[in-house]
User: Fold this.
Amino acid sequence: MSNKDNKISWAKGSQGMLNLGHENFVRSDRVVAVMEATSLPMKRLRDRASQEGRLIDATAGRRTKSVLITDTQHVFLSALSPHTLQDRLLENDAFPNLASWNWRRESLPHKSQGAQPRLIIISAPSGAGKTTLCDLLLKDFSQIQQSVSTTTRPQRPHEINGQHYFFITSEEFEKKKLAGEFAEWAEVHGNFYGTRKQTVDDLLAAGKHVLFAIDVQGALNLKKLYPTRALLIFIHPPSIKELQNRLIQRKGDTPEAIAKRLQNAYTEISWSQKFDYQITNDDLKKAYQQLKDIIQRECQ
Ligand code: ADP
Ligand code: 5GP
Assistant:
């Protein structure tokens, strides 16, 4: 790529187009896949595109790391890795639909491909149904195990210490935080929650995919820590009204806690574009099928 700072940039005066270098443009909402450049099928595709005059040659040669395929039939080359390139495309706001297109990741050969265990990270506003969906996954996939978080939140009547959470005091939490025991931690709805490093490392070492039902801050922090293993899935409620109904029906929180959780839902939803996949949990059966499809595609 010719850009000095190795970043894709907006092309001046070319609305909805990004400059990949040498004035080679990729059009808004037209990217259909971003692939590693090195595999044999990709080399063949590049050769064929070149012969047919469809190759937009931003970085021919050894620095080429990824190939962008567009539905205009043009093939673009880039010096950025596919993962970085995708992140940049998303950051640029020029591809508003990219995050919700499931095949985007499906068609990308993962660095973690093979039997490498993944971190399956599920976030959602409280009450959207992530616990329900995670419980179904755990029943169906023996190779997935859930990370049990540590929290300062009061234990709910049906919850079992060590199974749903490790319930500890704020003082104990602070000590663990200072000792560096958490891979990530966050203050959510006025309580502290954290994921123990040891839990994650033990499960990965045992060859298990690790399931997390954590908030958006925690999800993005884990992604930074485990960039190639993390798989981020966001669960949307069908509406805020339905979210409120579910929180009331669950009978686990005070009216004040419910109000706080509803208020926070708006911020959480605004982060959903950063996730690899998004599912709306309206009909539980349908939502679970979508989740299962993603897991089968990404983790097996
Ligand atoms: P979260 O873990 O995201 O806070 P839960 O899984 O506890 O959410 O779900 C909140 C409530 O909504 C629970 O009572 C659950 O049984 C119910 N629920 C989950 N999914 C659905 C759905 N698709 N339709 C109706 N109710 C649902
Ligand atoms: P709840 O109190 O309803 O069990 O959880 C409240 C919020 O805290 C949810 O969004 C849940 O996903 C999040 N949460 C639970 N455990 C963790 C954790 O270990 N880290 C982070 N960052 N959030 C968590």
Notes: DSSP finds ten helices and 16 strands in the chain. The longest strand covers residues 182-188. Residues 124, 126-132, 246, 249-250, 281, 284 surround adenosine-5'-diphosphate (ligand 1) (CB under 6 Å).
